[in-house]
Amino acid sequence: MTVTTDSVRSALEQTSELDRVESHLHPAGSFDVADHEVPTGREEIWRFTPLKRLKGLHADAPLDGRNTKATWNAPDGVRVDVVTGDEATDLRGVSGWAPNTRFTARVLAEVRATLLVDVPADVEAGEPIVIDVEGTDADVTSGAHVVLRFGRHSKAVVVLNHTGSAAVSAVVEVVVGDGAEASVVSIQDWADDAVHLSHHQARIGRDATYKHAAISFGGDLVRMDANVTYDGPGGSAELLGLYFADAGQHIEHRIFADHTAPRTKSHAVYKGALQGEKAHTVWVGNVLIRKVAEGIETYEENRNLVLTDGCQADSIPNLEIETGEIEGAGHASATARFDDNQLFYLQSRGISEQEAQRLVVHGFFNDLIRQVGVPSIEQRLLTTVEAELAKNVLKDIGSLAAFGSDD
């Protein structure tokens, strides 16, 4: 069934005030751009983001520039196409979500075309659907709307691969039908001057499974929101993230699991490494367990490994719980330098200090990389981690005991 923008708006308007749960991290949504003020940086959801480096994407920069080109493959039975006109209009808000930031409202209101990936019911894609987005000009700003639709009991993997130079504001909407198995891998491997401001919103059907992997290496500034809601009981979301920030980079990831149905699950694991002067990473996790969401299970975890001096890693997990009738809920966050015990163990067996450091970093990321589930992507990530490490010679790094909290 196609969900039009008008029907989504009508459904939101009919939602009773008792069903509207206030969250300080997620303002009320609206399709009207005028309802969203230009952020100043004092707002809770923008206080970590260096707005001056966004090239106006958070405000009123033009979204009609041509600064990217996209290519893709389409396995048998799967439609991948750029749609316009009424078909594109009907896809605005197809995830059942109303924009809660100015940039997302502007994308849905102003971007005329939509890149649609449509996996029909009962279809199992024989290979990953890979969409390569190559940036061509970081001085031009643009917007993008992508819809990934997985029919009932379908199974597919979609890879969004971003490279080159660009300044892009993007909204990716994902609809996972009942009983479907969907995986979305978004790789931000931009050039050093790129700016990428994006919001991924998924709606998970009854007994469906959804895996989202957010992987960020390149870019001057990358900020991604990865949000999920549930259409019925039994839905499960696995939110994975891997990022590696170099000198001067700002990489920011935010997740929001909104448990809107009973007996649903969410599990988030994000890991990051930082090296170089003024490398800055931000991870903000939030899980909202509504009154109706009895019997749910959720856990969110963020780990950061600081490789050199001059870095900053902000890690903020949150839980908002409206019912005590749950199976389990928790979070963990830690930021640390190398563990002296690990390095000493490896060096005592004849391994050099630099090689020991390299092995520790690979071990830190390895388990997470293996969970991506796409062998070609996993090998690429291992190679990229190796390349990132080669940018700095890791010497004379003092040890600092892990700090953070586990609740």
Automatic annotation (TrEMBL):
Pfam families: SUFBD_core (PF01458). Signal peptide: none annotated. It comes from the Bacteria. One of its GO terms (biological process) is iron-sulfur cluster assembly. Residues 1-21 are annotated as: Disordered. InterPro entries: Fe-S_cluster_assembly_SufBD, SUF_FeS_clus_asmbl_SufBD_core, SUF_FeS_clus_asmbl_SufBD_sf, SUF_FeS_clus_asmbl_SufD. Residues 138-364 form the SUF system FeS cluster assembly SufBD core domain. Residues 1-15 have a biased composition (Polar residues). Belongs to the iron-sulfur cluster assembly SufBD family. NCBIfam families: sufD (TIGR01981). This is Fe-S cluster assembly protein SufD.
